[in-house]
Amino acid sequence: MLNSTIQLYKKAYSGLSRNSWYLSFVMLVNRSGTMVIPFMTIYCTQQLHFTIVQAGIIMAMFGAGSVAGAFMGGRITDRYGFYDVQLGALLSGGSLFILLGLQQSFAGVCVVSFILSMCNDAFRPANSTAIAHYSSEENRTRSYSLNRLAVNLGWACGGALGGFLASVNYHLLFWVDGCTNIFSALLLLRLMPRSVYKQPIVAKVKSKIISSSASAYQDSTYLVFTGLVILFATCFFQLFTMQPVFYKLQWHFNEQFIGFLMALNGLLIVAIEMVLVHKLEGRRPGLFYISWGVLLTGLGFMALNVLPPSGWSALFVVGFITIGEIMSMPFMNAFWISRTNGQNTGQYAGLYSMAWSVAQIIAPTLGSQAIYWGGYNLLWWTLGGVCLAATIGFNLLQKQLSRKTILAT
C-alpha cells in the first residue's frame, strides 16, 4: 500500500521540465511572504480604525489595480516576452509593499494599494505564459498544478507566519512581503538567466487549437468562460477578505488560529492536488471537473450558516472549499491555454488574470455591502447562490462545446 502510494506520487511529479521547477521555486519564495492581503481587512478595521465599508473599498482598489496590471502585463508579455515582465513586477511590487505599510490615511492607503496591485499583478500573465512555454501539451495541467502547489505551500507558510507577526506588529507584514518579492526577483535572475524567451512561444505551442480567433477578446466562448470565472472568483476571494473578519468578530478566533486556517488550505493543496489532477486529467472534459469544484466551493461557504461556531466547523469549511478549489482551478488554467495559438498566449493569460482581478474588485464590495445590509448570513447564502449559477453556466458551456465538436466531425 505504501509503495503504491509512493509510486503514485512519483508519477504525478515526473516528466516536468527543469525550468517549470525553477519557476515554481521562485513562486514558492514569493508566496511564502504573502501575508499583507489576507490580513489587510483586519489591519484596516482593527489597526487603522477604518469602517468595514472603507476596508471593502481598499480591497476593491487592490482589484482595480490588478485589472490594469493584468491587462498591461498580458499585452507587454506578447510584445517583449515573459522574463522582463516578471522581473519588473517582482522588484516594483516589493518596494511598494514596504511603502504601503507606511501609509496611515484612507486616501494614501487607497492610492498605494492601486499602484502596488497594478505593478504586482502584471506578474501573473507573464508567469502563466512562462509556464505554458516550458511545458508540453501532455503535462501542461500538471505544470500549472506544480505552480499552484508552490503558491499554496508558500501561502501556508505566509499565512501561518503572518498570523504570528500580526499578533506582534502588523507593520512587520509589509516588510516581509516586500522583501520576499525582491528576493524572488534575485532568484529569477540567478536560476533563469535572460536568454531566448520570446520567439519559442510562437514556435513551440503546436497543440490542437480549439479557437479560431486571433485575439482573446474576439473569442466568444472564452469570453463566456471568463465571465463565469469572475462569478466563481468573486465568491472564492471571500476566503481571504470577509471570512477572516467573520472568524475574528463573529466566531472570536485569534489571529494565529486564523493564520493556521489559511495555512491549512495551502497544505491540503500541497498534499493532494498533484496526485488528484494526475488521476483525473484526460478522463473527462475539464469543464466537468470545474463545475463540480465550483459547486463544492459554494456549499462550503453556505455551511458557515449551518454549522455551530467552533474550530472544528472552521476546519470542515476549509477542507470543503479546498477540495472545490482543487477540482476547479487547475482545469481552468488548462482550458485557457487550450484556446491559444502560440502568438496570443499573453492575451489569453492576461484576460484570465483580469477575470480574477475584476473579481477582486467585486468581492470586497459585495461582501461588505451584504454584511452591512443583511449580516454574514446573507453573505454566505449569496455566495452559495452565485456558485450554483456559475456551476450551471459551466455545464451549459461544456454542452455547447460538445455539440460543436460533434458537428465538426
UniProtKB/TrEMBL annotation:
InterPro entries: MFS, MFS_dom, MFS_trans_sf, MFS_Transporters. It is a multi-pass membrane protein. Keywords: Cell membrane, Membrane, Transmembrane, Transmembrane helix, Transport. Residues 19-402 form the Major facilitator superfamily (MFS) profile domain. One of its GO terms (cellular component) is plasma membrane. It is found in: Cell membrane. It comes from the Bacteria. It comes from Mucilaginibacter robiniae. Its main location: membrane. The chain crosses the membrane at residues 20-43, 55-76, 149-166, 172-189, 222-245, 257-276, 288-307, 313-337, 349-372, 378-397. This is MFS transporter. The keyword Cytoplasm does not apply. Coiled coil: none annotated. It holds the Pfam family MFS_1. The keyword Lyase does not apply. One of its GO terms (molecular function) is transmembrane transporter activity.
